[in-house]
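Ticket closed. Logging final result for Cystathionine beta-lyase.
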Amino acid sequence: MSSVSRATQLASLGRPESGWANTPIIKGSTYLFDSLAQWRAARAQRDTDRVLSYGARGNETVYALEDAITAIEGGYRSKLFPTGLAAIATTLLAYLKAGDHLLISTGIYEPMRILCETQLTRFGITYSEFSPTDPHWECQLQPATRMVYVESPGSLLYDMLDLPALSQICKQRDILLCADNTWGSGINYQPLNLGCDISIVAATKYFGGHSDVMMGSVTTGQDCFAQLEQASINLGQTVPAEDAFLVLRGLRTLELRLQRHASSALRIAQWLDTHHAVKTVFHPALPGDPNHALWQRDATGSNGLVTIEFDPDLSSKKIEDAIDGLHLFGIGSSWGGYESLALPADPQRTRLRNSEQLGYLLRLHIGLEDPADLMRDLDTMFNSIT
Ligand SMILES: *Cc1c(COP(=O)(O)O)cnc(C)c1O
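Final structure:
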């Protein structure tokens, strides 16, 4: 499979060998066996293999999506979860135990840090943070560190980590390296190929791609899959077949959509970079972004996320009134769908680098609309501020 091009791969993943072009939606809890012997054999086999036995453990539709994501991420196997956050939470509970320490990068998806703070600490799992820009980050490792968890690029300032370098140190010390790959969505960036043990994607974003489904995936190498699967079963994690079908449908156009998101976002980022109301534009594909070199080395594409820091002389009130006047950008959570979105980012809450020095931050998701129309809308916003 890896020898064919990405576009060809996306057109063939998770399809039945014959008959229907798409794997149909299977609904079911009870799976029937012809005899007790067959039932016993399936139960014995399911500890090591994927066999149909009970609805909570998946069915043909779910397996088709698992296989497709495994191929995209370049892993051994994948598990699916009802949200991206459920995927993160189950991963942490799968590998960590009381007494362990977890090291996380700053600027990660905020609910993940809240999960560490409000759940993990109650189970005796400690955590601390390191900055993606800290060259001496390994000084933050402790004897009890069991996992390093990063988001690369982060989803607000797009700070990238040198995953191959991190992985070398983690491997020496027998520490698991886990990456949130939602930004890269498997095709722009491949943490497992860059040395990570575990890659998590909020499939709610670009995998689904249409703002109509919630899901998360975790893909691992062979060594650590069994623990993830056990935790997933223990915690009763499962996804509806309709949702798996929708995400698999989204994957068919993933590369095409990302190319459009990325080219529009770069064009808009370059225009924003010259605008007098904008102090900084954060977008790793933009030459001049501090993450551009690592992005060029490790990523194969970009996406629709662009964050801007307004000129610090502008008042927040004026900025927010102007944001309310946008017509083509929706105000709402999430990103990765077909449509453009705008939402302020609080640098204190998300603990971004140099958060004290950052001005008003607005994260834009550049959707599939015509970029010229989007620029006109943004220009109207700027004109109403200044
Ligand atoms: C959205 C997001 C998540 C969580 O996904 P949900 O499906 O909303 O739970 C996790 N990580 C990142 C980077 C995200 O952007």
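Residues 83-85, 109, 151, 155, 180, 182, 202, 204-205, 214, 216, 334 surround pyridoxal-5'-phosphate (CB under 6 Å). No further action required.
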